[in-house]
Structure formats: C-alpha cells, structure tokens
C-alpha cells in the first residue's frame, strides 16, 4: 500500500511539477539575482512573521518527544497542503519529505528537526508548554517554523527554480537518531547537498557561525551494571562491595583522556549517573553507572569505546565484582563534518545577506547532533543562527528549563534557508539536462 502511494506520488510530482524555464546557468543567475535579495524582506513582512510565530507557538505549547511528533507532523503537513507543496509521509514514523521545484536534478535539501525534550518548562509566558514534563528547550519548534517560512518563499518562486529543493522534517534529534532513520528510509536518495541551521543564544541576531571540517563531536552513551555481593556494612569481609568497585571504575575512566589520549585530540569521558544503595548500613548487591564519551575522530571514538568497556570490566574485577557494559547504539552519532565547498558557499550567501563581518568562525564543540548522519552520507553544512537577546536577561543555553527562543530571528533563518538552496541550484546545474523524460534514474 505504501509502495502504491509512493508510485502515485512520483507520478503526481512528474505531472504537476512546473517545467524549468531554462537550463541556461547565466539566465538562472539573473533570475536568482532578482529573487534572492527579496527573501529577507519577504520574511520580515508582518504577515509572514506572524504566521511563522503562530506555528512555532502552537508547537511550543504542545511539545512531543522523539518519534512521537504526531501533532507537530500533522501541523506541518497541513501547512504544506495549504501551500500546495507535495510531500512523502510517513518517513521514519513522523518524518516528512517535501519537494519544491522541477522534480528533477539537482536536488538540494534543507532540514529541520521536530522533537522536544523530557523536561519541565520554567519560563512563565503565555505560550508555555501545556504538557507536563516536556519542553521545546533546544529551539526545534523554531527550526520547523523557519523551514516552513522558507518553503513559503520557495514555493512562490517554484517556477524560477532550476532543480528541486527537498524539505526534510525529521523526528528524534535528541538522542533518537531520527536523521539515521530518515537516511535509511531513503530521504536523501539522489540529493546532492544538505543544509541545516541551529538557533544559538551565544551569537546576536544577524550573526551566523560555522566552520569547515569537523564542528561537533562524535557522541555516545554507556551504562554499566557492577555486581558484587551485598550485606551488612559493619561486616564488609562477608560482602563484595560494588560501590567501591564503581568508585574505582570512575577514577580509572578519567585516566583514558588524561593519560591515553593525545592532548591535542579533544576527547571527553563523563560519568553522569551513579545509582546504588539506599541505606547507610547496607552494602548493595549492585551499582549502575552511566555516562557519555565524545571525540573528534572516528579512530579516537572507536578506541575510547573499546577502552571504556575494558576499563570497566577489568577494574571491577580488581574489586572482585562483575561488570556488564552496554552502549546505546541509537544515541551514537558520528562527528558532524561540514563540507569545505558548502562552507564556502554558505559564507558567500550569508555574507551577501548579513555582511561578511557577521559570518563568523564557529568554535569546535563537544556537543553532538544527528545531522552528522546526513553530512556523513552526502556533502552537508550545519551553521549556528544567532538569536541572542540581551533584553530577555542572561542567555540560557539549550536544554535549560529557562530557554527562550527570540522569535525576531525567524526571517533570518527562513531567508538563509531559501537563499542557500536557490543559489546552490543555480551554481550546480544538473550535469545533463537534455536527457529525455523518464530516462534518468536520478529523477524522483
Ligand atoms: Zn538539543
Ligand atoms: Zn537541537
């Protein structure tokens, strides 16, 4: 049934996609020069701003966790329907892939994530989360609103596009690896490049930051259950104390980065979870510890993983305990790597819109992002979109219960999305546009 729907969609896309007005790149550049400066002005129009803000606030009030973004996805599809944008759904559960343009190569993708976090919002405002224990504290509600804003502009110019812009609305960025699921479901098949943005409270409005090469670290989580033999705390000789074993394990884990890693090769091992025991005078049977590890190269990451397992099991055995280590594969993200050419493209496009002094070099960060799966599969570019607002008090980092999105940033995000994609199509024309209809395997 899903296959039939896909066939129908492919047919529909072919039937109704406007034909390209020209395959001449120079004419295309002229068209682009005409439409691109309008994007920021268009996105700043009160009617567009209010529409984007309305969408974001609706999503903010009803935050949904990874793979449960049912209402968010429904809202996005309703907006795409209203704009007349065709899409595939469902992809990876709640994910959506929309198409604007000719339905033919080149294909360039823009991505927004949809999920919220399992935490309580502590910001008191009119559109505070209505769902206890869930909050959009990373700005993914804003990402959706801005990508829909871009979609509106791009759809207005669909007849000017020389190729196809692919809109990716993905589930479960926060530890669920939604990008990987989208990728496995074929969301990026035949796509040549992908761009995304993340709102940032560290940079002011009108400033964007990125860098070529690695930007965010490869990340993963581990958990270990260390088992001994519980008993009376006054008679330790009759027990095997897993608390002492776990304490030694944690100290030994800290030596991996300080003693084994190259000091110039950034790595992190942090234990954030220690659960065991419940009484002052009882030695428990077992202790559970858990943590995260991060690195900037695949080799270092693999080595860390190997040594974490080895250190936990062997160190536990020194204290006569057993240890079972598990790694959360779903939350294991590769290094986020920005393509050099796309970074140059981003600098040029953002520089034109914001002034090159407002396109700054991002610092390397040990945080992770599942966009890394996309940019590992095809050339990709991730950038931070400044939204710092001094009047809203000291900026709160992502995942803070006091996190506030500065909605004034929306026109910038929408316009940058639209500009990056249109100019990419203009500068990377399809290699052979003379192929007869239906003969190219690259088509949708
Ligand atoms: Zn986040
Ligand atoms: Zn995020």
TrEMBL record:
Domain (Peptidase M20 dimerisation): residue spans on this chain: 223-316
Cofactor note: The Mn(2+) ion enhances activity.
Pfam families the UniProt entry points to: M20_dimer, Peptidase_M20
Cofactor(s) annotated in UniProt: Mn(2+)
GO CC terms, sorted: endoplasmic reticulum
Methyltransferase found in the keyword field: no
Domain of life of the native organism: Eukaryota
Signal peptide range: 1-23
Gene Ontology biological process terms in this record: auxin metabolic process
Binding locations of Mn(2+): 138, 140, 174, 198, 399
Keyword annotations of the record: Hydrolase, Manganese, Metal-binding, Signal
CDD domains xrefs: M20_IAA_Hyd
Gene3D superfamilies for the chain: 3.30.70.360, Zn peptidases
A molecular function GO annotation: IAA-Ala conjugate hydrolase activity
Family: Belongs to the peptidase M20 family.
Protein name as catalogued: IAA-ALANINE RESISTANT 3, JASMONIC ACID RESPONSIVE 3
Source lineage: Eukaryota, Viridiplantae, Streptophyta, Embryophyta, Tracheophyta
């Amino acid at each position: 049934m899903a296959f039939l729907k896909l066939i129908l969609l492919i047919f529909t896309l072919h039937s109704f996609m406007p034909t390209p007005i020209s395959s001449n790149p120079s004419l295309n550049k002229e068209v682009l020069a005409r439409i691109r400066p309008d994007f920021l002005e268009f996105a700043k129009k009160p009617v567009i701003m209010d529409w984007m803000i309305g969408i974001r606030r609706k999503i903010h009030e009803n935050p949904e966790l990874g793979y449960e973004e049912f209402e968010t996805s429904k809202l996005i599809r309703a907006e795409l329907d209203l704009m007349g944008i065709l899409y595939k759904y469902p992809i990876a559960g709640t994910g959506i892939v929309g198409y604007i343009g000719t339905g033919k190569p080149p294909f360039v993708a823009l991505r927004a994530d949809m999920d919220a976090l399992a935490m309580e919002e502590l910001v008191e405002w009119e559109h505070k989360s209505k769902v206890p224990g869930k909050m959009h504290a990373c700005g993914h509600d804003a990402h959706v609103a801005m990508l829909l804003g871009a979609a509106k502009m791009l759809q207005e110019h669909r007849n000017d596009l020389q190729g196809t812009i692919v809109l990716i609305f993905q589930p479960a960025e926060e530890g669920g690896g939604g990008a990987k699921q989208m990728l496995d479901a074929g969301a990026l098949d035949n796509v040549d490049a992908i761009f995304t943005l993340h709102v940032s409270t560290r940079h002011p409005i009108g400033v964007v930051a990125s860098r070529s090469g690695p930007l965010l670290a490869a990340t993963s989580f581990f958990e270990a259950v260390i088992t001994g033999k519980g008993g009376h705390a006054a008679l330790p000789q009759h027990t095997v104390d897993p608390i002492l074993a776990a304490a030694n394990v944690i100290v030994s884990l800290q030596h991996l980065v300080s003693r084994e890693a190259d000091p110039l090769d950034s790595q992190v091992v942090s234990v954030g979870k220690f659960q065991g025991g419940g009484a002052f005078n009882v030695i428990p049977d077992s202790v559970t510890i858990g943590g995260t590890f991060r690195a900037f190269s695949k080799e270092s990451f693999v080595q860390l993983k190997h040594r974490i397992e080895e250190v936990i099991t062997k160190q536990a055995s020194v204290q006569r305990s057993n240890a079972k280590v598990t790694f959360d594969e779903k939350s294991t993200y590769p290094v986020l790597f920005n393509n050099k050419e796309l970074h140059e493209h981003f600098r040029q496009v953002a520089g034109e819109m914001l002034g090159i002094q407002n396109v700054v070099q991002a610092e390397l960060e040990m945080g992770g992002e599942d966009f890394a799966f996309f940019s590992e599969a095809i050339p990709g570019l991730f950038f931070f979109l400044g939204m710092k607002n001094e009047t809203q008090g000291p900026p709160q980092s992502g995942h803070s219960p006091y996190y506030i999105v500065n909605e004034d940033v929306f026109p910038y995000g929408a316009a940058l999305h639209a500009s990056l994609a249109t100019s990419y199509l203009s500068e990377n024309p399809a290699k052979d546009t003379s192929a007869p209809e239906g003969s190219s395997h690259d088509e949708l």
